[in-house]
Amino acid sequence: MRYRDKIAPLALCFALCACGAQTKNQVATSAPVNWTAEAGKRVVLVDPDVELSELTAGGVTEARADWTQTGKTFIKTDIASTLQAKGVAIAAADNVSDRHEAQLIKLHGALGQSILLNSVVPFPTKKNNFDWTLGPGVAAFRDHYHGDYALFVFVRDSYSSAGRQAVIVAAAILGVGVQGGQQIGFASLVDLRTGRVVWFNRLANAYGSLKEEKPAAETVKHLLEGLPL
Predict the structure, then answer these.
(1) CATH 3.40.50: does it fit domain 3-27+41-223?
(2) In the predicted model, what is the mean pLDDT of residues 163-182?
């Protein structure tokens, strides 16, 4: 089973409850953000894991490469602008080819899924303890890109096709609710010296869009809500 398939049911749990954008961020208070003087304020922006898709009449999502590229570009541009306005430099980790770095990105995806699951069904050891880590292997990003922190972003954004919209309307007439397109995602800030996740924010939005500049900027605003930089 692919990762995006595994995360979908959980994502749906909180996306269905969203009326407009809903976010929830957590900060590791025991690991305050700090910078090394020689490096300055520099964050590694890991190539965002983004997919935009069309929701068919039958409820199947079909990925759209053109929409995805547009959405990813908007996300990267808006994040860079937001951080630069805070005096934070960006080191872009695009098109990662190093095997170890690629594995770290996959590991983060799995870790993000666990943090989401914990927000729905708390793990006994995590109820009142935001303590998550990617391990010391993240030093590879620090050595390569010379930043103290890495920002990871995951977004899945779907849009109802004309056929799906017709199904939604017909079902509503019969008093039955049918799910339309939705936007779900999360972002996290990882300390590259320790591997600890120092901040995590989840997003569920029934109305967001990454296909146009202005709503995409709004999505990024929600994704970065509470970012301690």
Answers:
(1) yes
(2) 72
pLDDT for 197: 94
* Beta carbons of 68 and 51 less than 8 angstroms apart: yes
Structure tokens at 64: 């759209």
b/e burial code for range 161-196 (CB count within 10 A of at least 16 → b): beebbebbeeeeeeeeeebbbbbbbbbbbbbbeebb
178/156 Cα distance (integer angstroms): 19
Provide the sign of the torsion angle of the four alpha carbons 156, 159, 161, 165, taken in this order. positive
Domain boundaries, the chain: 3-27+41-223
- State the pTM of this model: 0.82
CA distance 15 to 22: 8
Positive or negative torsion for Cα 161, 165, 171, 172: positive
Whole-angstrom distance, CA of residue 226 vs CA of residue 25: 6
Distance CA 100, CA 127 (A): 31
